[in-house]
Amino acid sequence: MSIINTDFLILFGVLLAVVAFLYSSVGHGGASGYLALMALFAFPISVMKPSALLLNLFVSAISFFFYFKKDFFKPRLFYPFAITSVPGAFIGGMIPNNSFYKILLGMVLILAALRLFGFFNSKERETTKINIPLAMGIGFGIGLLSGMLGIGGGVILSPILLLLGWATLKETAAISSLFIFVNSVAGLSGYFMGDKTFPTESFYLVPVAILGGVLGAYYGSGYFSNKVLKYVLATVILLASVKLIV
After folding, report:
1. What distance in Å separates the CA atoms of residue 44 and residue 103, rounded to the nearest whole number?
2. Which of 4, 49, 87, 187 could form a disulfide with 150 if both were Cys (CB 3.0 to 4.6 A apart)?
3. Is the dihedral of CA 39, 45, 48, 51 positive or negative?
4. For the whole model, what pTM was predicted?
5. What are the helix (H) ranges across 27-168?
6. What is the three-class DSSP state of 158?
7. Helix pair 45-69, 206-222: axis angle to 10 deg
């Protein structure tokens, strides 16, 4: 496989499975983590964005399946975001990355991660009724950024749902996983509209990501407590923020 030195293939595969496990346990596809790994292992820039979105498709779909089976998915919390995020992600997929937006988003996510770790305010918010117009506006913004950066947007949506009190932790995981899936499809579609070729070698990474994703979603949806999920989610968001800033 030409996208990575074969001497490091096993190490990369192990780390990829771990990233998929962590992200899928909280309903995420893992694109920000995959991008960080690919950068660390010196993947070609042209390979990173489409490969991350491809892995996102599989891992987020697996995560949604497990959380849906446990009846954590609430359609009324999903549709307002998805209606506007899909066209936003499609448009974003045709726009090159912007370092300023990446740094700004990374700083915001650091604050969100610290909040989940218990800083600023340790009291848990009770769930409140969703504001649909606001959710639609947020959805478009997340979709646009997601398409630009090559991520599914769950790492942005999750803290927003929790901080606004619109969903519980496991409801957030279920909503985020499907949100990531549809945005990844839209982002890839926008990417292909730019007459870009797809790195077929990326499909070799899919089975490894699926293995990590299945295990993560299984334990996250059924065995991890809310406290464990909160800390895992905070860790995931913090890792994503570092990837965006560095």
Report:
1. 21
2. 49
3. negative
4. 0.83
5. 31-40, 45-69, 75-93, 99-116, 132-149, 154-163
6. helix
7. 30
Give the span between the Cα atoms of 117 and 232, in whole angstroms: 9
Q: Could you read off the pLDDT of 44-91 as tens digits, one per residue?
A: 877 887 888 899 999 999 999 999 999 999 999 999 999 999 899 888
For the beta carbon of residue 80, count every other beta carbon within 10 angstroms: 20
Q: How many of the other CB atoms lie within 10 Å of CB of 108? A: 16
In the chain, where the domains are located: 6-245
> Two tokens at 112?
């969100």
Give dist(CA 180, CA 159) in Å, integer.
Answer: 14
Residue 85: exposure state from Cβ atoms within 10 A (0-12, 13-18, ≥19):
buried
Which range, of 5-9, 108-112, 165-169, 197-201, averages the lowest pLDDT?
Answer: 5-9
As given in the structure block, the two tokens for residue 27 are 């309903």
The 10s digit of each residue's pLDDT in 98-114 is 677 678 677 767 877 77
Residue 136 has pLDDT above 50, yes or no: yes
Furthest-apart CA pair in the chain: how many Å?
A: 52
- Dist CA 200 CA 2 (whole Å): 10
Residue 139, both tokens: 């959805």
The pLDDT of residue 134: 95
Nearest to 187 by CA among 157, 154, 150, 222: 150
Which structure tokens are listed for 128?
């409140």
